[in-house]
Prior knowledge:
This protein folds into four domains: 24-133, Sandwich (Immunoglobulin-like), CATH 2.60.40; 137-218, Immunoglobulin-like, CATH 2.60.40; 230-306, Immunoglobulin-like; 357-429, no CATH class. It contains five helices and 28 strands. The relative contact order is 0.07. α2 (309-363) packs antiparallel against α3 (372-389) and α4 packs across α5 (410-416). The longest helix is centred in the C-terminal third of the chain and has 55 residues, at 309-363. The strands form seven sheets. Strands 2, 5, 6, 9, 10 and 11 form a six-stranded mixed sheet that branches. Residues 7-18 and 348-430 have low confidence and may be disordered. By secondary structure, it is an alpha+beta fold. It starts with 11 loop residues before the first helix and ends in a 14-residue tail after the last helix. The structure holds 2-acetamido-2-deoxy-beta-D-glucopyranose (5 copies). The site of one 2-acetamido-2-deoxy-beta-D-glucopyranose has 5 residues, from β18.
Amino acid sequence: MCVEGRNLTWTPMLLFLSSALCSQWEVNYHQQHICAVKDSSVVIPCSFYYPDNQRVQSTAWGHEKYDIFNGPFNFDSELNETKKRFQYIGDTNHNCSLKINQVEHNDTGKHTFRFTTNDKEGKWTGKDGSTLKVVDLSISVTKPNGNRTIKEGDSVNLTCRNGCDGDNLLSAFTWFKNGEPITEGPTLYLSNMSSTNSGNYTCSLKRHTAASSGVIHIDVEYSPKNTSVSVRPSMEADAGSNITLTCSSRANPPVENYTWVKIDDGDIMDVGKGPVFFPGDGGQYLCSASNKHGSQNSSVVTIKMKQDWTFTKDVLIIAILAAVSVLLIVTIVFAVRRLNRKRTRAPERSEECEEDIQNSVYANYPVFDNNQSQERIGCEEQTLELIYTTVDFHTERKMEQQVASHNDDEGVVYSTVCRKLLNPTYVETP
Ligand SMILES: *[C@@H]1O[C@H](CO)[C@@H](O)[C@H](O)[C@H]1NC(C)=O
Ligand SMILES: *[C@@H]1O[C@H](CO)[C@@H](O)[C@H](O)[C@H]1NC(C)=O
Ligand SMILES: *[C@@H]1O[C@H](CO)[C@@H](O)[C@H](O)[C@H]1NC(C)=O
Ligand SMILES: *[C@@H]1O[C@H](CO)[C@@H](O)[C@H](O)[C@H]1NC(C)=O
Ligand SMILES: *[C@@H]1O[C@H](CO)[C@@H](O)[C@H](O)[C@H]1NC(C)=O
């Protein structure tokens, strides 16, 4: 008879008897402590022994968090449905190994094997069990200067750690970039990095690629690249139609400043900011893109305006000059003509006046007999003066006539002498 140790309330005498009888009952765990990476699979190697004359009827694997004698069990040969992750890879002789697939953190702890034989009392649980430790894979990053950011040209080492220190079985790793395997080994050396090294890195156990580390995102920063200008609708357009220049550039972090430069006979002028620019006139332009790591120039684009704004300006200036010249010429001509007219008119006037005087000689001024000759002379003098003082005031003339017709005032006489043409009031000869 053999009884499991759990009911030991025996006397020393019985104990001695029991150990003699039960020496053949045994579960042997080959590894007391097993470390496994989460999501990997692990084998708990195991052997068991029982009297030769008995046959094994059932096998089961339990966990310390349950009742290791009565279950429930993670694996139980008596039950059709047990957890699929627990796979009994032993047999019904002496091999009781268990494989656990897709190990979970929940599986941490002591796993024990129990079996029964065809003997009525033939039940045994190996209480010692195998203790499982479940760990995650992690990546440690070694940066050259301890910088937080990684720049183009930097070198970085990534080391995969499994947390199962000293476990050689777990030291074969595979490295992945964006899900694609790239290399094997515990450490990934990335040197003279460029943007192509940016990506999501993971490591896994070589034999269990499902057992993966967390993701390390590598972001290689760099100054602007492939800076170029696109022109719409075309490099050559009618003045007035809008030409749009767009600057594009790859940079990490993204471009912070776009500067537009116009090159004019070797002169460099900043003409705009921002990724889009509308050139007002033709010429040579380039854009400069910059971020905190540096800047890059695009190549030069030459914009042609078919009817240049500068050309229009010239035309405008010429037109204004022409207009001013024409105006000047017209003014001069007019002035000259006016002057000429005045010169030709003067003698006319005097003639006219003389005629008037001739008429008036007979017509007027009977009052001043003694001064008549003087009057004539005065008239001629006065006439010359009048030419320059009064030009075409016909109404005044009439008025003067009226005044003269009945007035004998001297002043009036002088001013109207030459004008008196019509309606003589007196017809008399001296
Ligand atoms: C038990 O069986 C497994 C699977 O067949 C095998 O890998 C293991 O070596 C065996 N263990 C012993 C102790 O025979
Ligand atoms: C780093 O890479 C760049 C191009 O990616 C290359 O021009 C340069 O020579 C490399 N430097 C070193 C030290 O290998
Ligand atoms: C890297 O992972 C982040 C999220 O973790 C995702 O947004 C990004 O698209 C991934 N990059 C690549 C290149 O797969
Ligand atoms: C970007 O520039 C690099 C050289 O700096 C060149 O090799 C690459 O072809 C360019 N890429 C594009 C999309 O123009
Ligand atoms: C970009 O062009 C401007 C103007 O020609 C020049 O002054 C500057 O040095 C250039 N920058 C780079 C990075 O080539």
